[in-house]
Write a structure and sequence with these properties.
about 725 residues; globular; Transferase(Phosphotransferase), domain 1; six-stranded mixed β-sheet; alpha+beta; Phosphorylase Kinase, domain 1
């Protein structure tokens, strides 16, 4: 067949063969792209049943459009050969992956979640796969997951495909067994009709095999295997010497229930639980099916509202905010507790909202509120823990002392909360709650005053923060926290264009070096950012992972870890999980929606990205950042006219900042305006675009769009 043409497709080389035909690499000479072409031999095409199966798979795929399902481009017959044309995948099947690698539990869950999301899309169209197994799951070279082979798919209802054809199920006679032995649901073994819950059982078999390294119901003969599926519970994964979390074990058991009514009732619900597991939180939906009591338990959660300043001096606000931040940081280190971030907590500063409304807004069970009266060196602090659902006070305390006692007070508050919530602290968590990074309260005081200024995100406030930290060093001596504050001053300057990139980066490097000399652990996040600016993304990703492991509530690390996973490590699913965790931790910071949207963009789910960015624009219309990414997502989803109009509006709103030349350049590129684009990039864009390391990626894309390929490669 090499060199043969079928329609516009010229066959290049063989890829594989199976019972339903041969698969080749081919060249689509109309569009200049490589594709995969599956041929149904004439001997098979003469069999009406096998031909119907082949056509059914093609029509089922044509009815679906999802990043985790193999895309079909064409279907036809020529010279007596029936063929289907699909996207060309580079990589290997999950079965091939098993031959040379034992998957870690996290990757196993990532793959299962991606398969579940693909199945949810199919089930939404009324299509049940009925043959989920390692041979039908493909892992691409860049880590994406694709569900293959819908040849046994059952269509529960008529489904209208994109080209107007209708997919219908010819029906399966009662008593006919369809599927692969070892990966069938009990109802399939009995020859009964399969539905979406049957796919959930087979996906459970797949997840079990990834975790345990062997099949859940494998026996010596086919008959014994089928009997085990019907009667025997799956053995614990731990029997294979592999330890998994209780929550993962519950999810797996729930997938493998013999009775379909006792499994997850939808693939989307299963995907939700798996993603929640990846992000480190137990999350339960109201429609999650009949989970057992243990699975219904929700992770305890809390928001620490900004402590009120009862002092007459308004300058003491920073001290109250610092007290709030230190308690949030301490509580965030308890792994069994979800803590709302400082950013979202500060948005509620001075709020008059009732406790119940705050609980519903942030989806938390508990609220901590308090006040600080500071007079000279003397302190009086109150704190009270409230049940958000009932408004009942679970614990309250008053503390009096001096500035030197502030660490003891923070420690007592954190331990009292853990005790009131009946949280069992590990020895490491106990040490973290009682350990002290800073022994001099004046250092902490100076650091929080500077951080308070940085949040204004203006050039003046940036300079004021720098002066405060330098004064602290002059009067209090060297301290890693003060040097860390100065490093952050220059990181802010890079992102906000407050000073030349090279100058700011050099200063950030020097201050980070000093932090490392004094306290290497304190420097981890700063070092990760330096690696990112240097373009060493693999190293940066590992450091961001370490920062999240050390402090699961560190929103800065979650933000950049999601970004690195999605755009540099080829792991958009992991990026999406981190983005969702970030939003659960910091739900009121609208800018966090950007990282969620860019994760969808990296996953080629442009429509969902547009939806997220539209909501972000609704919540914060003045956000220039959301406008830039909306332009990108609109363009990639094919809405070029809308993208160009938004680009024009973005420039008209403010033609002076860094976002205007980006919007201008994007518009010129989309419209193919080569000369205008070159003028923008060598002119106004040059002043701004190169300050961000990702500017080069954008420019390369624009050059390619106007056929400046050499410039794009440069």
């Amino acid at each position: 067949m090499i060199g043969t043409k079928l329609g516009p497709y010229r066959i290049v080389s063989p890829l594989g063969a199976g019972g339903m035909g041969e698969v080749y690499r081919a060249r689509d000479e109309r569009l200049g792209r490589d594709v995969a072409i599956k041929l149904l031999p004439k001997t098979v095409a003469d069999d009406p049943d096998r031909l119907a199966r082949f056509e059914r798979e093609a029509r089922a795929l044509a009815a679906l459009s999802h990043p985790n399902i193999l895309a079909i481009f064409d279907f036809g017959t020529e010279g007596g050969v029936t063929y289907a044309v699909t996207e060309l995948l580079e990589g290997e099947t999950l079965r091939q992956r098993f031959e040379h690698e034992r998957l870690p539990w996290r990757r196993s869950v990532e793959i299962s979640a991606a398969v579940a999301e693909g199945l949810a899309a199919a089930h939404g169209k009324g299509i049940v796969h009925r043959d989920i197994k390692p041979e039908n799951i493909f892992i691409t070279a860049d880590g994406r997951v694709k569900v293959l082979d819908f040849g046994l798919a059952r269509v529960e209802q008529a489904v209208r495909a994109a080209e107007g054809t209708t997919v219908t199920d010819p029906g399966t006679a009662i008593g006919t067994v369809l599927g692969t032995v070892g990966y069938m649901a009990p109802e399939q073994v009995r020859g009964q009709a399969a539905d979406a819950r049957s796919d959930i059982f087979t996906l459970g078999c797949l997840l079990y095999e990834m975790l345990a390294g062997k099949r859940a119901f494998a026996r010596e003969t086919t008959t014994e295997t089928m009997a085990a599926i019907l009667k025997d519970p799956a053995p614990e994964v731990s029997v294979s010497g592999v330890e998994v979390t209780p929550e993962l074990n519950r999810i797996l058991t729930h997938c493998l229930e013999k009775n379909p009514g006792e499994r997850f009732q939808s693939a989307s619900d299963l995907a939700f639980h798996l993603r929640s597991l990846l992000s480190g939180h137990t999350a339960v939906r109201p429609d999650s099916g009949r989970l057992d009591a243990a699975a219904q338990q929700v992770t305890p959660s809390i928001v620490v509202l900004p402590f009120a300043n009862l002092s007459s001096d308004a300058e003491q606000e920073y001290f109250c905010d610092g007290m709030t931040e230190e308690i949030i940081t301490a509580l965030s280190k308890i792994r069994g507790l979800r803590v709302i971030s400082r950013n979202s907590a500060m948005i509620l500063k001075g709020t008059k909202k009732p406790t119940r409304e705050i609980g519903q807004l942030l989806n938390v069970m508990h609220v901590l509120e308090g006040s600080v009266r500071k007079s000279g060196n003397n302190l009086r602090i109150t704190a009270q823990l409230i049940d958000a659902a009932t408004d009942a006070h679970l614990w309250a305390e008053r503390y009096a002392g001096t500035l030197d006692d502030v660490f003891d007070i923070q420690e007592k508050v954190s331990l009292s909360i853990a005790d009131a919530l009946r949280l069992k602290l590990s020895p490491a968590e106990q040490r973290q709650l009682t350990g002290r990074q800073v022994s001099d309260a004046r250092v902490l005081d100076c650091y929080h005053r500077a951080r308070h200024e940085l949040l204004y995100f203006t050039k003046d406030s940036n300079e004021k923060a720098k002066r405060l930290l330098q004064q602290g060093l002059d009067s209090l001596g060297e301290h890693p926290l003060l040097y860390l504050g100065l490093a952050h001053v220059h990181f802010y300057a890079i992102e906000a264009l407050f000073e030349p990139r090279d100058k700011a980066l050099e200063a950030a490097k020097e201050y980070t070096r000093r932090v490392q000399e004094l306290d290497p652990q304190c420097a981890s996040l700063a070092v990760a950012k330096l690696e990112r600016y240097a373009g060493r993304q693999t190293r940066a990703t590992r450091l961001f992972e370490d920062a999240v492991a050390a402090n699961p509530g560190e929103v800065d690390a979650l933000f950049w870890l999601s970004h690195c996973y999605s755009f540099y490590m080829g792991k958009p699913d992991a990026g999406l999980a981190m983005a969702e965790k970030l939003i659960r931790t910091d739900p009121l910071t609208v800018a966090n929606q950007v990282v969620l949207a860019t994760s969808h963009i990296a996953n080629a789910d442009f429509a969902r990205a547009v939806t997220v960015l539209d909501e972000m624009h609704r919540r914060e219309p003045a956000s220039r950042l959301s406008s830039i990414f909306r332009i990108q997502a609109l363009a990639q989803s094919g809405r070029i006219g809308d993208a160009c109009r938004l680009a024009e509006e973005t420039v008209a709103e403010n033609s002076e900042d860094a976002f205007a030349p980006i919007a201008n350049s994007a518009k010129h590129a989309m419209l193919g305006e080569r000369e205008a684009l070159l003028g923008t990039i060598t002119g106004e864009f040059k002043e701004y675009g190169w300050n961000d390391m990702e500017g080069t990626e954008w420019v390369a894309g624009w050059f390619a769009m106007v056929n400046e390929r050499d410039k794009a490669l440069d």
